[in-house]
C-alpha cells in the first residue's frame, strides 16, 4: 500500500512533457524548480523566453476559484498593472489540473517578471511606492467582473484554521488560552462592523513586501495572487503591515505605506477606524495559517516552537484595538 | 492516472499511527515536521519523548546501507559519542520502510539531542572542539564492524552527477571547460597509486558545522549520518573545510579544526598532502549533487542560476591543490 502523503514534488521530466504538450512553446523546454513551499514554483524556459510556473498545493481551491484568480490577474494586466498574468494554453484555458498522490494540483504558466523582490531593508520611500501600487491594484480591480467567485472572510478563515493552532499549543495552555480569547474577541468585533461603510472588491490577499518586486526600470510589480479574492479593501493593507511588523518593526514604514496608499486611493473614516481590528485579525490569520501548514512545508522562522514573536505582536495589537 | 512525483512529504497523522504501531508508543503521539530537505526530519512528541524521526528520501540508500548507518551510529553511541542513535522498534529492528509514491523510504526514530546546531559565526575554540569530536569519532570507529556494507564512494557519485551540473553551465564557456577538466583531473589524481594507502574507515560523510550541535548540558553532539560510510578518513575534514569556506569563515577556523583533530588522532603526512585534492572533490561533489536535486528540493542559496561564487571557489581549491 502506498503511504498517504500530504505534499509532493512533481517529476520534472513528466512536468516538462506536460507543458510541451499543452502550451505553444518553441524550442527546447526546460523546467527548473525555484521554490518548494506551500506551492511549488518553476522557471520555464523555451527558446529564450522565460515563464514562471506555479504548481498549487493539492485540493486547495476549486477550479472556479482558480479561474477567478486567472481572470483577476489578466484584468489587472490589461489595466496596466505589472503582474504575472497567466499564459493561455493551446486550448485557451488558463490553468490545468493533474492528479498527484496528494490530490488535484492546479498548474498555471505565467509571464515572467524580471526584477528583485523587496526584503526587510525597505525605505520609507519604497513603502510609500508599495502603498501606491496596492491602491492601483484596488482602483484597477473596481472594474473587474467575473462569473467565478472567490470570497475572503476573515471570520471564516479563523473558524477553519484556529483549531489547528489550538492543537499545536496543547502543551502550552497559557498560549492556547490567549489565542482562544483573542479569537473570540476579534470575531465578536467583526460582527459589529457595518458592511455598508467598508468597501469590498477584489483584493490581493497577501501584499507583503516579499510579494512585491522592483523591476529593472524601477517600476513596482506585484506577485503571488494565490490568496486573492473578494474581500475588504482596507484589510489588504494589513497584509503588508503584518509582515512589516514581523520583520521591519517601524511605524514610519507602516505610516509611509498607508500614506502612499491614501495618495492614490483615500480610505474612508470607517476603513481607518477598522485598522486596529484588521491588524490583530491578520496576526491571528497568519498564526493559524502556519499551524495548518507546518507539517507540509516545515516551520518558518519565528514559528519553530517559539511563538513569542507572533504572540507578542498579537498581544500588542489587541491592545491597540482596545480588545485586551 | 496519478502524475509521477520525485519527492513527497508523508502525512503526519498517518505517520503518527505508524509509529504507535511499530514502536509501541503510548498516549498522544504528535509528529511535527522540522525540516524538509533531502530527507525529512520530524520531532516526535509522546509520553516518553521527544524523539527525532528521519524519513530518508527514496533511492538514497539500500536497506543494507541504511542498516550500516544505524549500526555505525549505535556503535559511536556505545563508545560515548553524543549522537542521535536509533531507537529499536517493537520487533527489535532499527528502522522500517514504507512505500511512498516516489519509491521506498526508510524511516528511523532516534534519540533527541537537546541543543543548538552551529551556524553563523563561531570561535576557533569551538572549531578545535569540533575537530576533537571528529578525531574521537574516527578513533572510536576503529573497533566498528558491521555485517552490512556502505561506501561513501563520492568519486563514483561525481561521475554520475557531474553531467547535471555541466548542463547548467553555458556549453563551450570557460567555466564549462574548467569544470570538466577539474573533475577529470581530480578523479584521475585521486585514483593514482599515491593515495592507495591513506587510512580508511567509517566516516560521517558530511561533518560540516551545521551537523554538529552544542548540547544543552555541555559538550558536542553529531547528527545526520545520511552520508556516512567507509571512506578515507581525511575526507571528513574536507567536508568541514568546504562548509567553512562556503560560509566565508576565516582560515584560522579550519586550522583550529585540524588542530583539534590532531589532538586526538594525528593526521599522517599523506593525509595532509591529499587534503587539497579532497577539497576539490568535495566541492564538485556538492555542486553536482545540488544540480541533480535542484528539481527535487529547489535551489539552495547562491545556486539560483548564477554559479559565479561556486566557480570562484572551485578555481581557488584547484589552485591550492596545484591542478588545472
Quick overview:
The complex is a heterodimer of chains A (324) and B (324). With 324 residues, chain A is an alpha+beta fold.
Q: Mind sketching the topology for me?
A:
The complex is a heterodimer of chains A (324) and B (324).
Chain A: E1 5-10, H1 12-22, E2 29-36, E3 40-46, E4 49-55, H2 63-78, E5 96-100, E6 103-111, E7 115-117, H3 124-141, H4 154-168, H5 173-192, E8 200-203, E9 212-215, E10 220-222, E11 229-232, H6 233-248, H7 251-264, H8 269-273, H9 275-297, H10 308-320
Helix pairs in contact in A: 3-7, 4-5, 4-9, 5-9, 6-7, 6-9, 9-10
Chain B: E1 5-10, H1 12-23, E2 30-36, E3 40-45, E4 51-55, H2 63-78, E5 82-83, E6 96-100, E7 103-111, E8 115-117, H3 124-140, H4 154-166, H5 174-190, E9 200-203, E10 212-215, E11 220-222, E12 229-232, H6 235-246, H7 251-264, H8 269-297, H9 308-321
Parallel strand pairs in B: 5-11
Antiparallel strand pairs in B: 2-3, 3-4, 4-7, 6-7, 8-10, 9-12, 10-11
Helix pairs in contact in B: 3-7, 4-5, 4-8, 5-8, 5-9, 6-7, 6-8, 8-9
Question: Largest beta sheet of chain B, briefly?
Answer: 5 strands, antiparallel
Ranges of chain B where pLDDT stays below 50 over 5 or more residues in a row are none
Please give the CATH architecture of the largest domain in chain B: Alpha-Beta Complex
Distance between the termini of chain B: 50 Å
* Helicity level of chain A: 40-55%
User: What is Rg of chain B?
Assistant: 20 Å
Total strands of chain B: the figure is 12
CATH topology of the largest domain in chain A: Aminoglycoside 3'-phosphotransferase, Chain: A, domain 2
Q: Which overall shape of chain A is indicated by the principal axes computed on the Cα atoms?
A: globular
- Number of helical segments with 4 or more residues of chain A: 10
| Oligomerization status of the protein chains | heterodimer
Strand content of chain B: 15-25%
Following the backbone from N to C, one meets helices and strands of chain B in this order, namely: EHEEEHEEEEHHHEEEEHHHH
Gyration radius of chain A (Cα, Å) is 20 Å
The CATH architecture of the largest domain in chain A: Alpha-Beta Complex
Amino acid at each position: 500500500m502506498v503511504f498517504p502523503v500530504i505534499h509532493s514534488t512533481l517529476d520534472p521530466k513528466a512536468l516538462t512533457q506536460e507543458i510541451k504538450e499543452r502550451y505553444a512553446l518553441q524550442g527546447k523546454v526546460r523546467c527548473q524548480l525555484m521554490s518548494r513551499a506551500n506551492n511549488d514554483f518553476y522557471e520555464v524556459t523555451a527558446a529564450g523566453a522565460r515563464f514562471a510556473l506555479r504548481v498549487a498545493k493539492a485540493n486547495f481551491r476549486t477550479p472556479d476559484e482558480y479561474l477567478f484568480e486567472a481572470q483577476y490577474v489578466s484584468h489587472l494586466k490589461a489595466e496596466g498593472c505589472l503582474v504575472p498574468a497567466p499564459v493561455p494554453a493551446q486550448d485557451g484555458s488558463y490553468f490545468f489540473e493533474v492528479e498527484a498522490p496528494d490530490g488535484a494540483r492546479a498548474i498555471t504558466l505565467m509571464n515572467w517578471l524580471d526584477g528583485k523582490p523587496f526584503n526587510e531593508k525597505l525605505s520609507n520611500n519604497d513603502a510609500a511606492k508599495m502603498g501606491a501600487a496596492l491602491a492601483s491594484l484596488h482602483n484597477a480591480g473596481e472594474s473587474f467582473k467575473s462569473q467565478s467567485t472567490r470570497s475572503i472572510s476573515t471570520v471564516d478563515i479563523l473558524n477553519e484554521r484556529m483549531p489547528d493552532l489550538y492543537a499545536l499549543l496543547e502543551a502550552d495552555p497559557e498560549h492556547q488560552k490567549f489565542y482562544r480569547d483573542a479569537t473570540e474577541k476579534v470575531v465578536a468585533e467583526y460582527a459589529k462592523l457595518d458592511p455598508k461603510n467598508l468597501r469590498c472588491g477584489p483584493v490581493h490577499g497577501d501584499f507583503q513586501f516579499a510579494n512585491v518586486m522592483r523591476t529593472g526600470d524601477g517600476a513596482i510589480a506585484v506577485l503571488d495572487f494565490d490568496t486573492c479574492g473578494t474581500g475588504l479593501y482596507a484589510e489588504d493593507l494589513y497584509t503588508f503591515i503584518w509582515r512589516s511588523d514581523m520583520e521591519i518593526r517601524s511605524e514610519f514604514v507602516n505610516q509611509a505605506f498607508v500614506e502612499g496608499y491614501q495618495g492614490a486611493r483615500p480610505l474612508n473614516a470607517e476603513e481607518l477606524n477598522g485598522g486596529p481590528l484588521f491588524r490583530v485579525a491578520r496576526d491571528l490569520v497568519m498564526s493559524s495559517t502556519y499551524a495548518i501548514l507546518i507539517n507540509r512545508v516545515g516551520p518558518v522562522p519565528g514559528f519553530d516552537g517559539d511563538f513569542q514573536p507572533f504572540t507578542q505582536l498579537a498581544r500588542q495589537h489587541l491592545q491597540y484595538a482596545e480588545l485586551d | 492516472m496519478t502524475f509521477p512525483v520525485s519527492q513527497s512529504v508523508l502525512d503526519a497523522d498517518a505517520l503518527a499511527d505508524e509509529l504507535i504501531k511499530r514502536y509501541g508508543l503510548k498516549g498522544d503521539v504528535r509528529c511535527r515536521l522540522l525540516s524538509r530537505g533531502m530527507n525529512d526530519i520530524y520531532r516526535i512528541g509522546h509520553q516518553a519523548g521527544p524523539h527525532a524521526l528521519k524519513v530518508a528520501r527514496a533511492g538514497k540508500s539500500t536497506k543494507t546501507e541504511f542498516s550500516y548507518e544505524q549500526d555505525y551510529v549505535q556503535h559511536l553511541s556505545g563508545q560515548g559519542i553524543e549522537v542521535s542513535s536509533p531507537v529499536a522498534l517493537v520487533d527489535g529492528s532499527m528502522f522500517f520502510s514504507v512505500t511512498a509514491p516516489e519509491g521506498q523510504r526508510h524511516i528511523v526514530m532516534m534519540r533527541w539531542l537537546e541543543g543548538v546546531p552551529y551556524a553563523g559565526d563561531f570561535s576557533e575554540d569551538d572549531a578545535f572542539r569540533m575537530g576533537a569530536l571528529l578525531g574521537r569519532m574516527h578513533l572510536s570507529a576503529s573497533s566498528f564492524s558491521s555485517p552490512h556494507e556502505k561506501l561513501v564512494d563520492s568519486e563514483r557519485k561525481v561521475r554520475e552527477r557531474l553531467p547535471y551540473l555541466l548542463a547548467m553551465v553555458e556549453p563551450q564557456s570557460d567555466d564549462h571547460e574548467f569544470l570538466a577538466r577539474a573533475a577529470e583531473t581530480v578523479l584521475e589524481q585521486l585514483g593514482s597509486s599515491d593515495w592507495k594507502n591513506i587510512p580508511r574507515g567509517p566516516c560521517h560523510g558530511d561533518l560540516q558545522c551545521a551537523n554538529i550541535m552544542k548540547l544543552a548540558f555541555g559538550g558536542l553532539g553529531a547528527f545526520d549520518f545520511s552520508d556516512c560510510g567507509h571512506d578515507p578518513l581525511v575526507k571528513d575534514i574536507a567536508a568541514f573545510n568546504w562548509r567553512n569556506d562556503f560560509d566565508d569563515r576565516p582560515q584560522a577556523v579550519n586550522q583550529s579544526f585540524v588542530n583539534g583533530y590532531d589532538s586526538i588522532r594525528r593526521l599522517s603526512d599523506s593525509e595532509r598532502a591529499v587534503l587539497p585534492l579532497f577539497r576539490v572533490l568535495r566541492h564538485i561533489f556538492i555542486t553536482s549533487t545540488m544540480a541533480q536535486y535542484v528539481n527535487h528540493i529547489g535551489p539552495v542559496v547562491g545556486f539560483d542560476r548564477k554559479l559565479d561564487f561556486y566557480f570562484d571557489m572551485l578555481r581557488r581549491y584547484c589552485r591550492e591543490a596545484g591542478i588545472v
